[in-house]
Structure formats: C-alpha cells, structure tokens
Amino acid sequence: MDLPKVGSSHETSFIVEPQHAIPFPGLPPVLATPWVVWHLEATAYYMVQPTLPEDHVTVGTHIELDHLAPTLVGTEVTCRCKVVNVDGEVITLQVEAVDGSEVLSKGLHKRHVVDVNRLNKRLEMKALADNGPVTPLPPTKNETPS
Fold first, then answer.
1. 3-state SS string over the chain?
2. Angle CA(36)–CA(40)–CA(43) in degrees, nearest 5?
3. Residue 115 located in a structural domain
4. Which CATH number belongs to the domain containing residue 77 in this structure?
5. Which domain covers residue 81, as residue numbers?
6. Which terminus of the chain has a lower count of CB atoms within 10 Å, N or C?
7. How many CA atoms lie within 13 A of 23 on its CB side?
8. CA gap 9, 71 in Å, rounded
9. CA–CA distance, 48 with 42 (Å, rounded to integer)
10. Would residue 78 count as lying in a domain?
11. Structure pTM?
12. Left (φ > 0), alpha (ψ -120 to 50) or beta: where does 80 sit?
C-alpha cells in the first residue's frame, strides 16, 4: 500500500450555505462546528483515497479541533489538510479551515485504512445482532447493484 507521505497536503473550498448553520435562538447564521468537521474530514478522505488499493478506504477515528472564529452564510471557506505522521495504517493529519480573513478552525485528525469488504461484513453482522434484518449497504465501486 502506497500511503501519502509526511508533508503531503490537499485543500478544498466550499461556500457556507444556510443548511451549514444551526438555528439557535439569538445566534446569527454562522457555520456550525459539525459542518467544519465534515468538510475537514472530506478533504482528508479525498486526499488519501487515491493512494489506496481499490478495496480499501479510510475512516476517521479521531478528531481534535478548535473552532476559533465565526463565519457567516455566503462566505467561502478553504479546508486544508497536511499529513504529519503515518504509522502503519493510521494517518495523522494537521487540519485547518480558513476564510478570507482568518483561521476558523484548526486541529489534528486521524484516519485508519480499512478493507471495505471486511468493514461491510462487520457492519452487517452488527446490524443483524442488534436490530434484526438491515437495509443492505450500498454497493462498492467493484460491485453492481442486484
């Protein structure tokens, strides 16, 4: 497996939309922390994914994040990640989100490389044990829907 090297980096951008804000009373429509996490995780995922074999993905296993500044709906936000450590199948990334004027959020994020088929089997067994029959998982890109 040819994982990304320490120092590898990637960035993505998005516009903060109304659904990215939590409508708490008295709070202006600002980017909510869960959406910051989502976009930073997606940035890391899409950086690492092309380096993996076809039957593997990464899953987020840890995030340590400071949300430092508000960002209004309509603002463009850039998410950046940089690999700071690779230990076996665990990739640690430095992450940050910035708008045109300041750093909104920064921290560390860990992703673990997993085999898709093994993960799907584990999830199906867990769902059957916990809840009875489960809606089938969507097919991987190697499978075709039946």
1. CCCCCCCCEEEEEEECCHHHECCCCCCCCEECHHHHHHHHHHHHHHHHHHHCCCCEEEEEEEEEEEECCCCECCCEEEEEEEEEEEECCEEEEEEEEECCCCEEEEEEEEEEEEEHHHHHHHHHHHHHHHHCCCCCCCCCCCCCCC
2. 145
3. yes
4. 3.10.129.10
5. 9-131
6. C
7. 3
8. 24
9. 10
10. yes
11. 0.83
12. beta
Cβ burial of 138 (10 Å; 0-12, 13-18, 19+) is exposed
For 120-137, give one letter per residue: b (16+ CB within 10 A) or e.
Answer: beeeeeeeeeeeeeeeee
Tokens 């989502």, residue?
38
Q: How many domains does the chain have?
A: 1
